[in-house]
């Protein structure tokens, strides 16, 4: 049986995205907002397919899905997300716990001063350092409720103060405490470049956060608000609320897409499958070396119209997932693929259409020369709670490791260099204004910048036919 996942959701963006994530998981497992389960539907077809009558789902008895990998079931028969919620200002978490009272109020950490981290990574990081014991206690308590945690996942923005700064500190703490024994995966949201940002120091925050991801995360799913904004037809109908001036509503459509993708990644674990039955097997398919671990996703179909769904089949979805326009990361130039994993989620999936689609994809994609150029497809199972908008219809996601990261990180480095050249706004990251302190902080910042630049170089180098041989040569030279 796969191990459990503990979710850390940090800052405004992290908590808003994670709220949609828990809505999605709850809908798929028939869990109501207060944590009480709906009656589990009997499913004669799955009884026939699995041939395993021990697992037959009937009310009050065993179920075929595994909500317990993400939720804790209490003695009073209520499900609670295995989640720790952190923010330095209270409004977003209050909204989340009001919307979903299933959250354990004891797993919430709010700052006493309640005014956020002022979009400053350093403020968030220092706060995290000061409260690290409390934060670790919350995590340990969740770990103790699990039989065998295999995975930590972090939802956060790369650019603000809390998600970026406290998030970075949490990555250090997790790595220090659990080392290589547990996976650490992150869902990272980049801000829009196109909309003028009122936060001029975002490139500093981003580079400082990326350094921690490079050092401590096993994989990172990159989402870009520009990519999400430019997708014309959203998969979920948000009633036009994206234009609302309220922060939460403005991002609602984008957050639902991120949440859908994040939830679908664990579909084969939560709805037991014959392939990819552990986090380890999913990530080992996607991440060939620790230097190449920034992942891109896409989702299809991008529509909420039922009529469109009625003529979408497995083949069409697989081809739609190829389209760079539907990638949730910013893709600005032709890319090369290192690995690709498709998921199709539906009932009675047509294997011939999947085979046709997969063959076509393999022919069309431009792979780096040293990978097998094969595309795997997970046949995901649909929730039996199939009559709500979060669970109906045939859908697919694609996870890929590709070179679009070069464009995203290069843009950040350019923005960073513009600030760093003049040491602009560096005072908000230093302890004093004397030249020595400024030089110390700039030195630390530039180390982080170099780590990000090395990732860019690695993604460029991996396009060479000799990439793996170069690595072997490097190792020989060291010996
Ligand atoms: P402080 O506000 O400094 O305490 O940090 P924070 O981590 O709470 O900041 P926030 O999460 O607001 O991160 C900053 C960036 O994240 C913003 O510039 C937005 O681009 C983006 N962002 C904020 N909320 C959301 C959200 O709900 N969804 C998405 N997709 N992006 C968001």
What's this entry about, in short?
With 479 residues, the protein is of the alpha/beta class. The chain has helices at 11-28, 44-50, 91-99, 121-130, 132-144, 162-178, 202-216, 225-230, 247-250, 252-265, 267-270, 279-286, 306-310, 314-320, 351-364, 404-421, 435-461, 467-478; strands at 4-10, 71-73, 79-81, 83-87, 108-110, 149-157, 183-190, 219-224, 294-300, 337-345, 375-380, 395-402.
Fold and architecture overview:
By secondary structure, the chain is α/β, with parallel strands linked by helices. It has two domains: 372 residues, Rossmann fold (3-Layer(aba) Sandwich), CATH 3.40.50; 55 residues. It is 43% helix and 15% strand. The chain has a ten-stranded mixed β-sheet with strand order 5-4-1-6-7-8-9-12-10-11, sandwiched between helices. Strand 4, helix 3 and strand 5 form a beta-alpha-beta unit. Helix 1 crosses helix 10, helix 4 crosses helix 6 and helix 14 packs parallel to helix 15. It starts with a strand and ends with a helix. About 7% of the residues have low confidence. Guanosine-5'-triphosphate binds next to helix 1, helix 6 and helix 10. This is Tubulin gamma chain. It comes from Suhomyces tanzawaensis NRRL Y-17324. InterPro entries: Gamma_tubulin, Tub_FtsZ_C, Tubulin, Tubulin/FtsZ_2-layer-sand-dom, Tubulin/FtsZ_GTPase_sf, Tubulin_C, Tubulin_CS, Tubulin_FtsZ_GTPase.
